[in-house]
Structures are given as structure tokens and as C-alpha cells.
Amino acid sequence: LVFIGFIIWWKWPTVQQAQTSTSTTSSITTSTDRATSTGSSTTDVVEAPVVKETSPSTVARTFVERLGSYSTEADAENIEDILPMATASFQNELQALVRKARETSDGAYYGISTILITAPKTVSSTATQTVLSMTTQREETIDTPGNTTVIYQSITVTLVKSGTTWLVDDYSWSEKM
Description:
Shape: extended
Number of helices: 4
Largest sheet: 6 strands, antiparallel
Structural class: alpha+beta
Strand content: 25-35%
């Protein structure tokens, strides 16, 4: 009997959490269903979230960390993930980079992980174009985890404004430090 009591006591926070999640989901669903079915009540209408303009600095940070993090096991998915962040003409260049990565894979493991270590600094800026520079720390692994090298490298990213959205139009890595 003590053992059963211990099991109930041990599982109780999990049961309460599950019940809370279920009741929250139910109330959200009910609210949405009511708004959809009646259509006339403005108090029950669930509004879409407001999308704020993303800064060029935020776009550049995300782009650099995803571009610079690659593994032969991921098959260039990192580059495919950043295609929506690029201008149409630059998307073609990135897709060519994906094709090249897939064609030159020789079966050996290669991976590189990139993080920013300095905030993006403005090199030049106009109302429709911004060039940012930042420094990264990259861990490059060849064949085995024991063969890892830390590299410090700067990158310059050019962004252009399309409507209210900043898109990457070009980038350039510096020599390894």
C-alpha cells in the first residue's frame, strides 16, 4: 500500500501538468470553434499575431550560423534552410552550392559548427541595403571527433530590403585567423 502511495505521489505532478495542458488546449479550441461557427461575435474572434519587421542584424546572425554549420550527414540541409532568407538571384547561387556539396561528397565525415562571437557591425548602410561584418568561432571536424580544430573567421553579409523584409544578397568569408 505504501508503494502504491509512493507511485501516485511521484506521478502526481505529471498528471496535474497533463490535465492543465489538456484544459488549456480545450479552452483554446473551444474559443476558436465558437468564433468560427458564429462568425458574428467579435469578442470571440482570435486575431492573427502581429508580425514585426525583422532587423538586418537578426537576419544576418541567423544566416551566418546556419550557413556556417554543415555536416556531411545532414546533406547540405543547412543551406536549404536559409534559401527563404535570400534574394531570388542569390538563391540560385546557394542552390549551386548545395549541388556542389552533394556531388563532391566522398563518404568521409566532415562537420563544421559556427557561432557568432561578436555582434554584427555595420560596414555600410542605406535605406535599402546594409552590409554587416561579424566574427565567428568555428569548430571543424574531419573524419573523427578527435580531429577537431577551432577556427576564428570573419564574415561580411550584404542584405537588401524587399518590402518590409531584409534578405541576404551576398556573403564573403575572410581568411581563417
